[in-house]
Amino acid sequence: MPRDDPSPTTTEIQDGQTGTLIVMPAQATETGLKQIPDAAHPFIAPGPDDQRGPCPAMNTLANHGYIPRNGIASFEEITLALMEAFNLELIFGANMAANNMLTRGNPFIDKLSIGGVSSLVPPLPGQIDGPETGGIAKHGRFEGDASLTRADAFIGDNRDFQDILYDLDLLQLGKFGDNGPDGNNTVFNVATLIGMKKQNIAMDQAANPEFQFAARRMNAAYGEAAFILNVFANGTTKEATLPIIGSFFRNQTFPANWFRAASPVTGAINGVTVNELLAAVPVLPGRNNAQGVFVADPAPPPPFNSSFGCFAYFDQLANTPGVLVNTTGIFKKNVDLLAGIEFSLASANPGCDQEVLPFGPAGV
Questions:
Q1: Which positions fall inside the Heme haloperoxidase family profile domain (predicted)?
Q2: Rounded to an integer, what distance in angstroms lies between the CA atom of residue 56 and that of residue 160?
Q3: Which of 279, 287, 297, 333 is 20 to 30 A from 311, comparing alpha carbons?
Q4: Residue 190 and residue 277: Cα distance in Å, rounded?
């Protein structure tokens, strides 16, 4: 896409807000095995005014101070933390931060709440996307149904950890998990993830009359499940055991004696597990109709119907506010950078050789 905006000044004011030019960090140079957390990042439980939300990884980063402990972070802070603490490859981590910032943050001032609405993240200049940013806990664009540990927004608490849902997940671990040191099925594997997602989807589709599992949400839900094996597993053993996953999910803290992955985790690495889930869980992107019957969403136009990854990319931009494209100066520079990062990751999928800029509705 052409980008012919004049270069912004280093300081720009819109609607009383001071714009901050977002800068893409460099790929970390130290990318080997490392014990996390280090002494500079002890666990401190969040205070009553600190933001936490539906993502265990983000909550854990904040609880250890890898991102600001108040849960309000910039694109750069999130991207650097994902590289440092989880050894995510630059583009893979930056894509997650970019998606969150474009859909539920304020990319003009480069601030995002990892939880709900915060006065520290004002609505976009001119309230072009409504009277609040929402934070990543706001349902619809990023946060969605069929979570491993959060209820669907329509029927319960979509922000906070739900013991009952996690206990149901652990039933699948007992059925399909690998044997751990205690001789019981306490090591997560692909079969466990498949059982968990089948259970999540079937249960929520039946209970939630407004159940939605669009391509963007399906991609995120399977990607989050794949994190269990590829990101949360101990780098020394490559095993995701019950105590490890319980520490991340229940306590939102790094486990004892935990090491990040021994080499950077890329989108392609996590995508292998996502593709295994796609193949084993026969659900098309779709949603419940007025009668509570699940119906498939229409496929996107060519070439975005050539692969699931490309479908999910198109669907994500179709649900990112199109008003972002009509911005100027620093605001537009930031939007273009973040959208370009999303395309960089998506372009690895067959058919994704055409960048899409946001074209979704505002104020939702």
A1: 39-279
A2: 10
A3: 333
A4: 8
- Cβ neighbourhood burial of 138 (10 Å; 0-12, 13-18, 19+): buried
- Distance CA(72)–CA(116), nearest Å, equals 10
Residues in the chain, how many? 364
Identity at 280, one-letter amino acid code = A
Cα–Cα distance between 45 and 47 in angstroms, integer?
A: 7
298, with CB counted inside 10 A (0-12, 13-18, 19+), is exposed
Among residues 316, 254, 349, 337, the alpha carbon closest in space to that of 60 is found at 254
Quote the tokens at residue 245. Answer: 């996953």
The CA distance from 96 to 105, in Å, is 12
Residues 6+ apart with CB under 8 A from 274: 219, 222, 223, 226
Q: Is the pTM above the cut of 0.85?
A: yes
344: which 2 tokens? 């960089």
